[in-house]
Amino acid sequence: MNQRIGYARVSTEDQHLDLQRDALQQAGCRVIYEETASGKNAARPELEQCRKALRSGDTLVVWRLDRLGRSLPDLVHIVADLERAGVSFESLSEKIETGSAAGKLVFHVFAALAEFERSLIRERTYAGLAAARARGRSGGRKPKLHDKQLREIRALLRDPDIRVADVARRYNVSRTTLYKYVGAITPHSK
C-alpha cells in the first residue's frame, strides 16, 4: 500500500513544528518524521530514518521546499534519489509534486530558476565588490591591529625576555594573528 510520509523540520528549539505537522496531517500523512536541525547541518537523523522508511510508490511530503534541502543542489540531489527509488515528492506550499510528468517538469524548472537566481546574486555581489574596490574601498573584516599597535608590538618583540604569547594576550589576539601581522618573529621571542 502506497503511503504519504511527511517530514517536518525547524531550525531552532524555540520554533514550533505545529504548523508543519497540521499541514502534513491534512495532506494525508499518517507518519511524520520531525526534527530540530539547522538547514546548514548535514546530519539530520530523522530525515535519514524517513528516507529509509520510504518504499517504491510512496510519496514524501514536506510543508515547504526549504524544510527538505539545505541548498538547491542538495534538494535536487534528494529528489533525484527519491525518483530513482520510485518515490514521489510533494511540497505543499509551492504546490509541487513529482508523481506526474508535469509535476517533474515543474520541479526541474523551479530548480533551474533557483539556480539562475543564485548565479545572478553571485554576479551582482562580484560587481558590487569590484565597484567598491574601484572607489578605494575594500571589503572584509576590519584589521585586528592598527599601525600604532603594530609598531608597539614590534618594539616589544625585540626584547628577548618578552614572550609572543604574553604580547598576544596583552593585545587580545592569538599568536597566529601576531605572526600574520608582524611576520616571522625571531626565535628568542618565544
CATH top-level class of the largest domain = Alpha Beta
Helix proportion? 40-55%
The assigned CATH architecture of the largest domain is: 3-Layer(aba) Sandwich
> What's the mean pLDDT score?
86
Can you write the helix and strand succession as a string? EHEHEHEEHHHH
How would you sum up the global shape?
A: elongated
Rounded Rg: 26 Å
Strand order of the largest sheet: 2-1-3-4-5
Q: Write the CATH homologous superfamily of the largest domain.
A: Resolvase, N-terminal catalytic domain
As a percent range, the share of strand residues is 5-15%
Any idea how many domains? 2
Structural class: alpha/beta
Main sheet: strands, sense, barrel: 5 strands, mixed
Low-confidence stretches: none
Domain Resolvase/invertase-type recombinase catalytic: 3-136
GO molecular function, one term: DNA binding
Keywords: DNA integration, DNA invertase, DNA recombination, DNA-binding
GO biological process, one term: DNA integration
